[in-house]
Design brief:
By secondary structure, the chain is mainly beta. It has strands spanning 2-14, 24-31, 33-39, 46-58, 63-70, 82-85, 88-91, 93-95, 114-119, 127-137, 151-157. The strands form three sheets. A five-stranded mixed sheet has the order 3-1-11-5-9, with no helix packed on it. It has a four-stranded antiparallel sheet with strand order 2-4-10-8, with no helix packed on it. Strand 6 and strand 7 (88-91) form a beta hairpin. Mean pLDDT is 87; it is low at 1-21.
Length: 158
């Protein structure tokens, strides 16, 4: 059995924390993690990547600092994120490294977050960074055929 379109979208919606006026400004964009086809008989996990890009400027400083958190998605937990197709679910998770050992969350419950201190060449020169989101669906899950999706909110706090 194959699931022709198992995808997870890292949502482009962002929640930005308040910053001192004109001190630092950040914007972010994301590219979803598209797993493609998933086979219930495949013995290896299904891996895919997406990204979160952050652009920050500072008016009065040569540094910018921020964190990037990923929400739990529809499952409500980091330890067992799940894509859904109606009532059916397909387990997966998102990680900070290619080794896929550290779950990308908000720094609680054994998860990690991205924390950055960026150095600017001059004030108002942007700091640009792109972070890879490493996704994995564990092998041999017994699921029905069809598209599975989940929405993950990326939060940049500066």
């Amino acid at each position: 059995m194959t699931c022709p379109r198992a995808t997870i979208a890292v949502a482009a919606g962002l929640s930005l924390a308040a910053a001192p006026a004109l001190a630092q400004t950040c914007t972010a964009t994301s590219t979803g993690v598209a797993f493609g086809a998933y086979s219930t008989t495949q013995v290896a996990p299904t891996d895919a990547t997406g990204s979160v890009s952050v652009r920050c400027t500072a008016l009065l400083s040569l540094t910018v600092s921020y964190t990037v958190d990923l929400a739990t998605g529809g499952s409500g937990t980091y330890s067992a994120r799940a894509m859904a197709q109606g009532a059916a679910t397909l387990g997966y998770n998102l990680y900070t490294t290619a080794a896929r050992t550290t779950v990308w969350g908000n720094g609680t419950g054994g998860t990690s977050r991205i924390s950055t201190l960026g150095i600017l060449i001059t004030p108002l020169t942007p700091h640009n960074a792109t972070y890879t989101v490493f996704g994995r669906i564990p092998a041999r899950q017994n699921v029905t055929i069809g598209p599975y999706t989940d929405g993950i909110l990326a939060t940049v706090t500066y």
